[in-house]
Automatic annotation (TrEMBL):
Protein name (record): Nitroreductase family protein
Top-level taxon of the source organism: Bacteria
GO molecular function: oxidoreductase activity
Keyword Oxidoreductase listed: yes
Organism: Paenibacillus mendelii
Amino acid sequence: MNKGQKTNDFNEIVFGRKSIKQYDPSITISRQEMTDMIAEATQAPSSVNMQPWRFVVIDSVEGKEALAPLARFNKDKVMSSSAVIAVFADMNNFDYAEEIFGKAVELGYMPEETKQYQLNAFKPLYDNMSKSAMRENIILDAGLVSMQLMLVARAHGYDTNPMGGYEKDQITHALGLDADRYVPIMLISIGKAASEGFQTYRLPVEKITTWK
Ligand SMILES: Cc1cc2nc3c(=O)[nH]c(=O)nc-3n(C[C@H](O)[C@H](O)[C@H](O)COP(=O)(O)O)c2cc1C
């Protein structure tokens, strides 16, 4: 198990995850452990491995107090959790292409020719991609990392709640980010549950699946 992980029991992690409405406010998560969890979550796959996810971790009282008025009906979660992770997606993600592929070469994960081949293939694609296509792309990737982060949190013994109920038109600016560049994805509260999550129903597989 990685440092800080409490369990690698897959069933416990996946089926034990419930959205948590109230947290024990006395629990703090160290920045080192939060860093470890983000690093683990970012093993998620992404389009062309561009990893367009960006995170703002709000773990101070002042930070949470500033966030709470933007969190609509989620204020209690914001204030009682150990931290809120604001997940964003970066429209300029391809700026990191050289670093991502360059490091892969340096680490011996791919030969230089493969890097050049991939960059030559993808650069024009990304340069000419419409804003809406880019948004769609990066929102998908950031959703994957968000899910992975919630499961990683479970492995570290924490609970979470994904939140879409907040002022998306204000959050980016409020956190000091460029709203034209960073797309808000969701807030994730994280901490130790003070009360159990609700049981929630899932549609049966035959209602949501077709076979060909
Ligand atoms: C994108 C997204 C946005 C959500 N927004 C909120 C929210 O604003 N407030 C809240 O209490 N729960 C929110 N939820 C949690 C869902 O209500 C919850 O995942 C769903 O009811 C299933 O319950 P479970 O997570 O306990 O399995 C959100 C979930 C997702 C995936």
